[in-house]
Every structure is written in structure tokens, then in C-alpha cells.
Design brief:
Shape: globular
Number of helices: 10
Distance between the termini: 68 Å
Number of strands: 38
Strand content: 35-45%
Structural class: mainly beta
Largest sheet: 8 strands, parallel
Helix content: 10-25%
Oligomer: single chain
Length: 743
């Protein structure tokens, strides 16, 4: 059961003692007892993923120990030890007394130690952290013809029994898709630890439901319309640790959080609190409600709700909003307005102890600069501070539960995963940014005939369980059903695929490609003697994917490592740009969202990010930034088959025909200037051009003009189709180009 972290707390972070227990005999040795000689143990800064320390990539058990004193201010309170996150199995002792166990890598947990702590002397806290390899078999899945050794060919896990998502089974992590794909352990006490104090009657958790209220227009056209109010209801969970029945008031006060307004709403109701856990509903209507919007469609307005009972007070920020998934179209409607989601998949890193507000803020500010309005977190859970920034900056978040590929569908695993998804729901529910959920990333991605029935067993139960926590948001069972798909030409899909034969779905939850990071980054994980010529097993381990590189993307290695890097980065930049153009031209026919895979590489490796692990940009960052704009002008050229990412080659005495598209994700714009010209790159000669004034309809994608160029018989060389949209004041809304070759 998830609980709020109270205001009265002291950090237990710092240097803890640790001891590796390779044979897992520490319990029999009594390593939890306070009279153990901890002076012989080594020190580790906590929080930390032990992969990042001298321990390295170790799977198994480590014992941790620290000591603390109870502050004077805690006397007379209920005292708890609160862990924000421990990966993966945690057993905890205080002063030799066993407190309990916990499973999971992302969900907080706590223990009541009121009757165990020494109030006037040192306390000894011991944690047994076990982060094993999954009880899974890694089997050869695809034995294609390539120079890779057998262990480095495509493998998949069978029946993973841990809920760790990307942190244990994904393409872009240590081991990648090889037999060693489980490498890169994320074990450790990787988030904060606190000693906390609470009242004897305290508010344990608050869940805030909001409604943008509609009302039938009886006197007008008879339709349902928003009436300008917000309905705020809260389930307040109160823990009465006494033996008394208490009659008192429950108060709720609502004030603006991040905008100026004199509004203050108050509500109180009489309640009777029995010993133990009690839940009460309290409701307040907010007149003239200021709604939370994604940043590009309005302001992310937020309120603070203050709850008081007996001597306890908690505060919770929230936003009033309505996010609807139109089941007929698969499109997204926010506060009654259909919007297109220009999205990004995000992970702060494979070892999340390093994530912090500066990292998130730097990333999110760059996303604002790139016009990204939605983020898909999958498949892991970020620290709470990340979601708080998304609340305040106006990013709509699609959260995926930490299940990625090949997990078990056993009854036992369903039990354990269901408990964790309930925790995830309670942890994130009140964040204004959360718009929708997925309970599994890719539940049916297997290369074996015999496979677990995750979609119809595990996913069904997880959806039902999460629905008990969140009955309002859309819950998606897993890619690639329910109008969800990948569009990764030149990566997971053939680079010469005819995209006109692709059955596009409303939600493109992954698009993009991959390439090789800059040489400076490459040298941080590929040994010098394995760099050139490439030692393919080493490169595959760190994410090259030989078959994708040479069979799908068809990359030319060139004559040097520098050429290889440049060729791959150039292809990724081009094919991703044209993926974006293709999807944006299909806006609402049927596409309503798209999410690049990924923002940055999760570890030092050959990846699929706009940035590598060290936030050095790939070339695709610049090409994507140029076309991921709210208004986009783009070209659809005449070709059969229609292949993106490759050279567009035409011959003299033929006709080049192009459709000029303008996609507008914003409101109506009048008197915009549309212009295009076909220019010879070397001579600057303009072969043909046009310029005219046109209105841009709200939230639209239209063919606004046609290019018909009868290519002269003596024409040759490289040409570029340059396109531009300016608003009526001369501001450039979109500037784009497409290269063509005549020979």
C-alpha cells in the first residue's frame, strides 16, 4: 500500500556499510544482528545502484548497514522507516528485530518502528538487498547468417519472473539482444531513505478526482456543454493508530498553486474515525476552474489541496483536466479539444540513482524547444520529481508499467505484478501530467511458438487491478493492439519497405531508427582493439544489431570508422525526418500521436536516442528538431514503391510530381504565405517555384499545393525542394526541404 511521505522527516542517506554475500548465507550468519562487527565492511554512498560502484555488474545479495539517532522532535510521534526504492528483494531489520520484506524496484515502502527504536541511543538499521538474475532461460531466437558468434546472435528470455521492465529486458541496454541480455544489474538502495514521524491519527494517502463539469443546455440547443466549473472529490485515507473512536472534522482547502487568483475554496465535514484504516470522501466545486493543459494548448494550471484532520495536515498539488481516448478513432481529446501528440519516449538512465532535477529540467527544456508535448515512460517508473516537473511544465505523460518483453504468465507472477501495478497507480495518480496508462510494453513479442499467454491472462488482470485505482484514465493492455503500433523503417522494419502498404494505426508509440554515437562516446565502451575493424560480437553486445544495420538499414561502412559513424548518423537523420513527415501527413487519417524511440541512450552504447548517454547529440537531433514543429510543411513525392530514407532519383525527360502538405496542430491562422522552389544545389538555378497566401485551418493536415516539374533532358545533379510557411507577420512557422537527384 502506497503512503504519502510526511513533512517531518530526516534523511538516512549517506555512506552505509556493505558486504557482498555471494553464497547468500548472511541470514544464517546473523548479519542482521546489532553486535556484528560492521567496521570490517566497506562503505557505499546511498542512494546508489551498485553497478556504478566498485561492486560493478554483480547479481545476488548485498547486506547494508547504517546507524542513526532519533531527533528530539520525533518524541511522542509514530515513527517509521521509509524507503523510496530498493531493487529488488529487501529484508529489513532494526536493532536486530525483523521489520518485514518488500519486492519491487520502483515502489516505496515503510515500516512502523515506534516500539522498536531507541529514543536516546544509536539504532542499527540493516537491509538485505537481493537483486538476482531472473529465473529465466535465454534461448537462441533467430540464427541468421552473419559473422556473430552463436551466443551473440538474437536471443530471447523465457519466463522472466521479475517486474523490472527496461531494467532487465530491452533492446538498448548492456547485453542488448544477445545471450547476455540480462547484464547491467540495476540492484541497490537507489533512492532516498528517511526516518519519518507522523501523528497518532494521520492522513496516509489522498486520491484526488477531478471533473470538468458539463451541463445540458436546456434553454439553448439542448447539447451538453462545459459550465466552467471543476468538481474536485478526494478519497482521504486516514490511519487511526489509537484504540479510540474519534469524532472530528475533515477539512479540505483548495488554492491556486502556479497561477495568480484570489480563489480559496473550503469544505469541512464531520467524520467518525474508527481504530485502523478509514477512507472518507470529500467534495468541493471550483467555480471558474482554471484547467491544466499541455503547454502548447494552454497553461498547465494547478491547484494545491490542503487536508486537515486532528493534528495532521497534508498538501497535494493537482490539476483539473479531462483526457478522453476516443475509442472509435483512437485520438486524444483534452478538455474537450482534440489534440495531436508530438511525443517522445524517455528514460533518464539504466541506473536511475543518478537521475536528478537538473538532468530532468535540462532534458525537458530541450523538449520544449523541440515542440514535444507528450512523453511516454516505458517500461519503468521515474523518480517522483520527474513527474512533478512534467506537471508544472505541461507535458502529457503516457505511463507504461515496468514489463517489457518475455515475462511469465504464471499465477504467482500475476499476483505479484498486480500488487506492484496498484502501487504504481497510487504513486502517480495525483500527478496532473498523467494522461493514460499501458500495463505492458510488448506482451506478444516472442520468436517462439510456445509462448506465455500474457495478453489474455496477465494483461487482463493488470488492467482490472489498475482500474480499481484509476477508474477515469484510458488503460491500454499492451503494444501492438488497440490502435497502437511501431513505425521504424530502417530499424526494426525493412528500410526498403513501401510505406503506402503499411496499415497505419492511430497511435505510433515508437518511431525512429538507430545509429552509432560519436567516436568520443564509442571509445567509452568499445575497447580500442575492438573498434576497427569492428569486432562484431563486442559491437553487438553494445547495441549495434548487425542484421538491422546491414540488412534493414543497409548502411555502407565506408573505409574508416569515422565514415561508418557518419554514414549511419546521416541515414538515421534522414529516415527519421521522413518518418515524421509521413505520419504528420496522415494526421487523423488515422494518426493521432507519435513517440520517438528514445530521447537519450539509457547507458553508454550504440543506441536509438537523439542524444547518447552523455547527452552528446546525434545528427538526428537536428533533423528532427527542424520538422517536429506545430506547423509543418512537407513533401510527398511521386514514387512507386514509396520508400523513405533513401535517395530520390529521377531521370531527365521525366516528370517530378510532388504534393505540398501543410500540417497545423494549432488554431486557425489567416493570411499565411506558402512558398516552395526547386533549386539546383550547385548553380542555385531555380527550376520552378510558387508562392501564395492561404489560411491554415485549425488542427488540420491538407495538400495545399502541387509541384509539377518537367525535368529537362539536359538536367543533371543534385536539386533541393525548399519549402516555407510564414504567418501574416512574416514569422517563419516551418522551413523544410527534400533532396532529389537527377541523373
Amino acid at each position: 500500500m502506497y503512503r504519502l511521505l510526511p513533512e517531518l522527516k530526516v534523511s538516512l542517506n549517506g555512506v552505509w556499510k556493505y558486504r557482498i554475500d555471494e553464497k547468500d548465507t548472511g541470514r544464517d550468519e546473523g548479519l542482521y544482528k546489532p553486535d556484528v562487527d560492521f567496521s570490517t565492511w566497506k562503505g557505499m554512498e546511498i542512494p546508489n545502484n551498485w553497478y556504478l560502484t566498485e561492486v560493478g555488474d554483480y547479481f545476488g545479495t548485498i547486506w547494508f548497514q547504517t546507524s542513526f539517532k532519533v531527533p528530539e522532535s520525533f518524541k511522542g510521534k509514530r515513527i517509521y522507516i521509509y524507503f523510496k526504492a530498493v531493487d529488488y528483494y529487501a529484508d529489513v531489520w532494526l536493532n536486530g528485530r525483523f521489520l518485514g520484506s518488500h519486492e519491487g524496484m520502483f515502489n516505496p515502502f515503510e515500516f512502523d518502528v515506534t516500539d522498536i527504536v531507541n529514543m536516546d541511543s544509536d539504532n542499527i538499521l540493516v537491509v538485505r538487498d537481493s537483486a538476482p538474475r531472473p529465473n529465466a532461460e535465454y534461448k537462441l531466437a533467430i540464427d541468421s547468417e552473419n559473422p556473430l558468434s552463436k551466443d551473440y546472435k538474437r536471443h530471447q528470455a523465457v519466463d522472466i519472473d521479475l517486474v523490472k521492465g527496461h531494467m532487465i529486458d530491452a533492446m538498448h541496454r548492456p547485453g542488448s539482444m544477445t545471450k547476455f541480455r540480462g547484464d547491467g544489474n540495476s540492484g541497490g538502495i537507489w533512492d532516498d531513505v528517511f526516518l519519518v514521524a507522523r501523528e497518532h491519527v494521520f492522513i496516509e494517502y489522498v486520491k484526488i478526482f477531478t471533473r470538468v463539469v458539463k451541463k445540458k443546455d436546456w434553454a439553448g440547443d439542448g447539447r451538453d456543454k462545459y459550465d466552467g466549473t471543476g468538481l474536485v472529490t478526494a478519497d482521504v485515507r486516514i490511519n487511526n493508530t489509537t484504540c479510540d473512536v474519534i469524532e472530528t472534522d475533515l477539512d479540505m482547502i483548495i488554492r491556486p498553486y502556479n497561477f495568480e487568483d484570489e480563489y480559496e475554496g473550503r469544505r469541512a465535514r464531520k467524520i467518525v474515525i474508527l481504530p485502523g484504516i478509514n477512507t472518507f470522501k470529500i467534495t468541493l466545486t471550483v467555480p471558474d476552474a482554471k484547467l491544466w493543459w499541455p503547454w502548447d494548448h494552454g497553461k498547465p494550471n494547478m491547484y494545491t489541496a490542503e487536508f486537515r484532520v486532528c493534528n495532521d495536515t497534508v498538501r497535494q498539488n493537482f490539476g483539473i483536466k479531462e483526457v478522453v481516448h476516443d475509442d472509435k478513432t483512437g485520438h486524444w481529446i483534452v478538455n474537450g479539444k482534440r489534440i495531436f501528440l508530438r511525443g517522445m519516449r524517455y528514460i533518464s538512465g539504466n541506473w536511475m540513482s543518478v537521475a536528478n532535477e537538473k538532468m530532468w529540467r535540462d532534458d525537458l527544456e530541450k523538449m520544449l524547444d523541440m515542440n514535444i508535448n507528450s512523453i511516454r515512460i516505458g517500461s519503468h517508473v521515474e523518480k517522483d520529481g520527474f513527474y512533478t516537473l512534467c506537471d508544472e511544465m505541461g507535458f502529457l505523460v503516457w505511463q507504461v508499467f515496468p514489463l517489457h518483453y518475455c515475462v511469465s504468465d504464471s499465477d504467482d507472477f500475476i499476483d505479484r505484478a498486480s500488487e506492484m501495478i496498484k502501487d504504481m497507480g497510487e504513486m502517480l495518480y495525483n500527478h496532473a501530467c498523467i494522461g493514460m496508462w499501458s500495463v505492458f510494453k510488448e506482451p506478444e513479442i516472442y520468436n517462439f511458438t510456445e509462448r506465455p499467454n500474457n495478453y489474455f491472462r496477465l494483461c487482463e488482470v493488470l488492467k482490472e487491478t489498475l482500474g480499481t485505482v484509476d477508474p477515469t484514465r484510458w488503460i491500454h493492455k499492451g503494444d501492438y493492439r488497440e490502435g497502437v503500433q511501431n513505425f521504424m523503417i530502417g530499424c526494426c522494419q525493412d528500410g526498403d519497405a513501401d510505406i503506402r502498404k503499411i496499415d497505419f494505426q492511430p497511435n505510433i508509440v515508437e518511431f525512429g531508427a538507430q545509429s552509432i554515437p560519436c567516436l568520443e562516446t564509442l571509445k567509452t565502451f568499445i575497447p580500442e582493439d575492438k573498434l576497427w575493424p569492428p569486432h562484431w560480437d563486442t559491437w553487438e553486445y553494445w547495441g549495434l544489431f548487425y542484421d538491422i544495420t546491414f540488412k534493414n538499414a543497409r548502411i555502407d561502412m565506408g573505409n574508416s570508422l569515422e565514415e561508418f559513424i557518419n554514414n549511419y548518423q546521416e541515414y538515421e537523420a534522414k529516415v527519421v525526418k521522413e518518418q515524421i513527415e509521413a505520419v504528420r501527413q496522415r494526421k487523423y487519417r488515422p494518426c493521432g500521436s507519435m513517440y520517438l524511440y528514445y530521447w537519450s541512450d539509457a547507458c553508454p552504447m550504440i543506441g536509438s536516442g537523439l542524444f547518447d548517454y552523455y547527452r552528446r547529440p546525434y545528427k538526428v537531433y537536428y533533423s528532427m528538431k527542424a520538422v517536429y514543429t506545430p506547423v509543418l510543411i512537407s513533401l510527398e513525392w511521386n514514387a512507386d514503391p514509396y520508400i523513405i530514407g533513401r535517395d530520390k532519383i529521377y531521370h531527365p525527360s521525366t516528370t517530378f510530381i510532388g504534393k505540398v502538405w501543410v500540417t497545423n496542430d494549432m488554431g486557425f491562422m489567416e493570411d499565411c504565405t506558402i512558398s516552395w522552389q526547386v533549386v539546383h544545389k550547385e548553380t542555385g538555378e531555380v527550376a520552378c517555384s510558387n508562392s501564395f497566401v492561404s489560411n491554415l485551418e485549425e488542427d488540420s493536415a491538407v495538400v495545399i499545393d502541387h509541384i509539377v516539374w518537367d525535368i529537362p533532358k539536359d538536367a543533371s545533379g543534385e536539386y533541393v525542394v525548399q519549402m516555407e510557411v510564414k504567418d501574416k507577420n512574416g514569422k517563419v512557422l516551418s522551413s523544410n526541404y527534400t533532396d532529389i537527384i537527377v541523373r
